[in-house]
């Protein structure tokens, strides 16, 4: 680790300690990403959707301690051809319980066979010869593979991983909703620092089921695009218990 990066981590540890001493802090944002967005604002960083790390080369990940085992590493759509997510939705989605007139597709897929619909099963396959990570689809009743190509390129996966997650700060968080004020409050408990081992280790983690791919394809429930596909993201995720398969834990001391 470079001396400058270690200094950035030590500075982040100091800033985090300042935030931690404030105890419960009112949310500065609505939605599921409120804890992370509030933390970014407390660190005086503008909220954005940039693929670059959040804090001087360090990616911030907030995780609710009690009930959220998986950590979202990064999001990336299928990239071997244009409009692949739409094609996957049209091919494999099923009627929504909320409104059977429209379809949804939700799946958490690993390198093991995952049955997600009555018709199809799925698995992740690392194809070293073609240098792609494939999303393979099989017919449930015959076990035969569907002759369709869906994949992510090594090149783009490596770029996303190394750009976004060379260094990681994992923050454990609690949240509380106050009915009187109608506000959500966050408490930031701890911060741990990690360094990415390698892209090759990422591929190995996919092969050995340490990483899963979480696909969320829904539909717009109202407005001018009602009924059309609403791509809510395709995220590569890892269980916190397995994080040291992909990252080295770093010894960054909190201020005393």
Strand and helix map with partners:
Blueprint: H1 3-20, E1 25-26, H2 34-42, E2 59-64, E3 70-75, H3 84-92, E4 94-95, E5 103-109, E6 114-115, E7 120-127, E8 132-139, E9 151-153, H4 154-165, E10 167-178, E11 183-196, H5 199-207, E12 211-219, E13 229-239, H6 243-246, E14 247-250
Parallel strand pairs: 2-10
Antiparallel strand pairs: 1-11, 3-13, 4-5, 5-12, 6-7, 7-8, 8-9, 10-11, 11-14, 12-13
Question: Can you walk me through this structure?
Answer:
The chain is an alpha+beta fold. Helix content is 24%, strand content 37%. It folds into two domains: 3-68 and 166-195 and 244-249, PvuII Endonuclease, Chain A; 75-156 and 205-235, 2-Layer Sandwich (Alpha-Beta Plaits). The chain has six helices and 14 strands. Strands 1, 2, 10, 11 and 14 form a five-stranded mixed β-sheet that branches. A hairpin with a 4-residue loop joins strand 7 (120-127) and strand 8 (132-139). The longest helix has 18 residues, at 3-20.
């Amino acid at each position: 680790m470079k001396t400058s990066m270690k200094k950035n981590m030590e500075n982040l540890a100091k800033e985090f300690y300042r935030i931690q001493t404030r105890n419960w802090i009112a949310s500065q944002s609505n939605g599921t990403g409120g804890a992370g967005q509030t933390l970014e604002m407390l660190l005086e960083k503008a909220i954005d959707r940039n693929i670059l790390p959040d804090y001087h080369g360090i990616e911030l990940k907030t995780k609710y301690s009690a009930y959220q085992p998986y950590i979202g590493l990064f999001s990336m759509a299928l990239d071997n051809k244009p409009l692949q997510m739409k094609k996957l939705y049209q091919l494999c989605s099923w009627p929504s319980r909320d409104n059977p007139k429209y379809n949804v597709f939700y799946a958490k897929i690993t390198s093991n066979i995952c049955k997600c619909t009555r018709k199809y099963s799925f698995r992740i396959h690392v194809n070293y010869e073609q240098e792609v990570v494939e999303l393979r689809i099989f017919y449930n009743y015959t076990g035969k593979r569907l002759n369709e190509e869906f994949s992510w390129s090594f090149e783009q996966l490596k770029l996303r991983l190394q750009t976004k997650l060379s260094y990681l700060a994992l923050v454990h968080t609690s949240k509380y909703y106050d009915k009187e004020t109608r506000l959500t409050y966050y408490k930031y408990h701890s911060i741990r620092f990690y360094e990415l081992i390698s892209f090759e280790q990422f591929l190995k983690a996919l092969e050995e089921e340490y990483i899963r791919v979480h696909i969320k394809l829904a539909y717009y429930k109202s407005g001018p695009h009602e009924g059309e596909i609403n791509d809510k993201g395709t995220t590569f995720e890892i269980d916190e218990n397995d994080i040291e398969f992909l990252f080295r834990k770093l010894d960054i001391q909190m201020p005393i």
